[in-house]
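Protein modeling request. Please complete all fields; requests missing the sequence field cannot be processed.
Requester role: graduate student
Desired output: 3D structure, token encoding
Chains: 1
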Amino acid sequence: MKFALGTVQFGMDYGIQGGTKVSQEMVNEILALAMENKIDHFDTAASYGTAERALGHYIEKSLVSKNRMRIISKLQSNAFTEKPQIFWKDIVLRNISKSLKNLNVSELEAFLFHKAEYIFDDRAVQVLDYARKEGFARKIGVSIYTPEEALKAVEYDEIKVIQIPYNVFDQRLNKCGFFDKAKAKDIEVYARSSLLQGLLMMSPASLPKKMRFAERYLTRFLSICREYHISPLKAAIGYVGGHPDIDYIVFGVDNKVHLSEYLSMQDVKISEEMIKTFQKEFEDVEEKLVNPILWNSGTDS
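Delivered output (301 residues):
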């Protein structure tokens, strides 16, 4: 399996367990260790607080060739909100130019829609592709949240990168034919949320009140891990990494110890039997479990 290092923790507090923003000194150490271990793909976004600037600071100060770092960033979610279409091209080019300046690079590996709704607008996709045509990005793509968005994204010839949520609880894209369609069009698939914002690493007893609905799922996941004598981290990463049509696993860390734990997972494989067990047990889960946007909605039951 191949890893891409996510950088949301470099620019803001993030995660269900109350993760805090990483210092620049630690960012530099994490990035250096990642590069030493042949992780050269990095996922960031304009909306990740100061993450782009943190990456750019490392690039400016380090001796590593910036050409070795493959950086993916994303258009601000509200970039086109209440803006006439006539201005969209300029908005895209202005946004990516700002990201490139923050990052201290001249070209991105890919520039994505952060707001997946734009994938349903042909004009928006054409406009985003100007970033590629102008030489600011090698590819364009989208970060999706639902199967409907994923299936729409694969319809476009311009889209060459799709970032998806994927984990033991979230099997929606297995059922809708997305992976076959993406593979047929040579689209790179990046899987994020392998730990579901840290949920899979928690104990049921430590879940906050708003997350009590997840207790029965988490309890069963941990039970399966015990049955197969494997740690929750290895099970979660091994499950995602075992998918033949996922090109990169996007993961985030807030210190070098956590990064080292992930590095030790690069060759981890879990059995086909365990994969099938997860698929059977979590074939039909409530959407609230796999969509963190919904975690703060509804009741506490």
